[in-house]
Each structure stands twice: as structure tokens, then as C-alpha cells.
Amino acid sequence: MPALEIIDLRVAFGPVEVLRGVSLSVEPRETLGIVGESGCGKSMTGLAVMGLLPPGGRVSGGRIFLGDTDLLALPERKLRELRGSDIAMVFQDPFTSLNPMMRVGRQIAEALSLHQGLSRRKARRRAVEQLEAVKVPAPKSMARKFPHQLSGGQRQRVMVAMAFACHPKVLIADEPTTALDVTLQAQILVLLKELQEQQGTAVLLISHDIGVIGSVSDRIAVYYAGRVVEHGSAEAVLKTPVHPYTQGLLGALPGDTERLVSIPGRPPDFATLGAECSFAPRCAHRFEKCSIEPSLLAPAKPKTAEQRALEHDFRFVDLDNTEIPGNVIALLPEKAARKHELVPVKLLQNVLVVAMSEPADKKAANAARTAAGCRILPVMADRAAILRAITKHYGGEPPVQAEEPQDTEHTGACWLVQEPGAGARETMDD
Ligand SMILES: Nc1ncnc2c1ncn2[C@@H]1O[C@H](COP(=O)(O)OP(=O)(O)OP(=O)(O)O)[C@@H](O)[C@H]1O
Ligand code: SF4
Ligand SMILES: [Mg+2]
Is residue 36 in contact with ligand 2, taking CB distance under 6 Å? Predict the structure, then answer.
């Protein structure tokens, strides 16, 4: 199951949408790079996930899942608990997150006390260990310094130490190296990678620099005007970009190419976007069809309730046992199992709803429901019966054999990609 899954996310300021249906997912230990020009919505994606959109900004559509947790359905109090523990963010400017009035060791220690309930003493010791882990010189004395007493690179390391202190499942790194010189950039990227590997973190790495993104990402999503216009494995996107915008971005990268080609024009104003492809005014390949904006050929489709449920390592519930760890299978009456009810129940509660029968013992079922924290009534059933019910309800094979889909798609939201041969496919510098 992805550590983070974003489905058709929309963010708006007033009537203007700045994220226009973004779908992404990141697996544990994976790095997904998000790249695109300034203003295309990279940071808004991270901030929407963190529940930290700036005033006036709101999520106007879509869903965000941290594992099984529907983040947009969480009350602010719960979201605050998750921030800094299960999900953390590193910003370009450490001053955004570091308190200038507090010694850095204490800041890390406070995060540890808050999220992990460590005593003050233990938290301080762990804070120094964290500083050691991010390889700052003399961690003990570093812990006693204020942010302004550190160099830019040291401050960024402190940010990284803080972000990883509580072993987050997902780390969003928004331009973590942009303010640093090239040598420090590389050091911070290596550090992020090391900690990610140690902790199994899923990383969403945001940068306007496709060079930075390309050097560490497993997959890449290319943003343009609040949409993903291309996504695929890093290798595919870098070696065989299919969207003219990605080709332009790569042309703008200093590399072995003989000359640097920049993308003419500017990103569009969100307020005046029309029906045509948002890249059309800058695209050397546009043709008649581009008067309508194409969608990604094979977008990161929202998983159906069934698919999502099938990914769970579900278990069977013994109603005499009121401690029900992990996922449960629930049976509920047919009328409640209609699609519109299935989705919220299942997505929110990590419960696979499979079939239709009233529980025989409603009292026991209620106890189980309370223990599982779900709104539906689990009942006992044997494994074979449940598998039969799943097969009958969803068709096809029983789901236990379902394999993780390999996400190596290389797609582009461009008519040229969707209908090869359409329009004239010159190169950007023809
Ligand atoms: N507080 C705000 N009020 C209104 N619009 C905003 C606000 N903050 C950002 N935006 C708009 O949202 C769009 C997306 O912004 P975002 O910060 O996500 O861009 P970005 O891709 O992170 O750019 P950069 O590379 O410059 O950081 C921008 O075009 C901007 O105009
Ligand atoms: S759809 Fe493709 S070819 Fe048409 S304008 Fe957009 S990027 Fe260019
Ligand atoms: Mg940004």
C-alpha cells in the first residue's frame, strides 16, 4: 500500500484553482520527485498534505491518504498529532520551521517529547543523537546554539534532524537544497537518502531543478500549471520525455547538450486559463486538437474501493476477542454496501466490506465494531466463506493473490502522446 496517496487533488484560492486534479502516490522507501517551474503548484501539494495551506487557500476537491488515514477527514487536533510524527516536511528556508528564539537541541527535543512522550532528559539525549546522525560538527555544542548561530548548511541539517526525529512514514522535502551551494546540495541529498533508507521513509522531493530531482528520484512527476503533465520512472522521464514541456525542461538543463535551450514564454495565469492545453502558448508542436486540454493518458487512477481493500493484509475477526488489531473484514447488509457507502467506510476505516449478511449476535458485533473503531458491523465468518463472498461480489479471483501493481508507466498529458502522429512532431529547436 502506498505510504501517501493523493487522488485528484484540487486547491483553490477563491474561485481560482491552482491545483487542478493532481493524482500521485509514494511507496515506503521510494522517492517521488515533483518538478516544474515556479508557481506550478509544487508547494501547494505539500502544504495541502500537511494541512498547512496559506490563509485563503482551501482543498476544493480530491482525497489524500496517509496509509489508510484519510487526512482530509481528520479533525485539526489529529492532524496536528500526525504532523512532525508520521508526516514531516523540510522547507527551503529553515527559518520557516526553526524557532529563532530557541536552541536547536531543545527544538528537536520538544518534538520528541510531544510526539513520542519522551522525558525531557531522554529527549535531549536523543536530540544530540539526531544531530550526530545528520553529521553536524560537535553535536553537543551545536545543540546549545540558536538557529542564527549556524551556517545555512548546518541549519538545513538541523531541519533534516528534526524531520527524521520521529521516524516519519512520509517526508515532504520542498526545495531542501535550493538555498545551498552545489557541494552542500549534494551533501544534504545524500543525507536525506541515507536517513530515508535507514527509516524506510517515503519521500516526496520537490524542486524546480530537474537535475536535483533526476539525481535521487525513483519516479518523477512533472507539473505544469497545477497539473501533472507527465509521470513515470525517473529513467523513462529523463531519457525519453514525451511531453513537450518535459522536453523543454530537460533542454534547459546544462548537460552534455551542445547548447542550452530554454522554454520560451511564461507559465500561464491560473485566473485566465481556458479550455485549451495550458502549455499551448509556449508549445512548438501545437495543432488544432490542442484547443482542448488533454488529460494524462493513464493517470494515477484513483484506486477503486475494491483495489484499495484488496491491498490490505486483512484478517478475520473473532467476535469474542474485543481486541482487534489491524484490518478487519466486515460483513454488512446489502443495502448498506452500495458503492457510495462502501467507499467512505472502507477508505476511512481500513475495513474490507465484502458481503451481505446481518450479524447473528448484534451485541458481540457492536463490541467488535467499537474495538475496531469502525461504524459497521463485523461478524465472524470462515475464511473460505469470505473469499467466496469477495469473489461473488467483485468477480474474478479471490483477492489474496493480488500483487502490487508495478508503477512504471510513462505517460504524458499531451495530444501528441495520446495520438502519435497527430500534429507535426518537430524538436524544440527546429
Ligand atoms: N497565498 C496565496 N494566495 C493566492 N495564491 C497563491 C498563494 N500562494 C500561492 N498562490 C498561487 O498558487 C500557485 C502555486 O503556488 P506554489 O507555491 O505551489 O508554487 P511552486 O510550484 O511551489 O513555486 P516555487 O517553485 O516558486 O516555489 C502560484 O501560482 C501562486 O500564484
Ligand atoms: S497538447 Fe501537446 S502538442 Fe498540444 S499544445 Fe499541449 S503540449 Fe503542445
Ligand atoms: Mg514552492
Answer: no
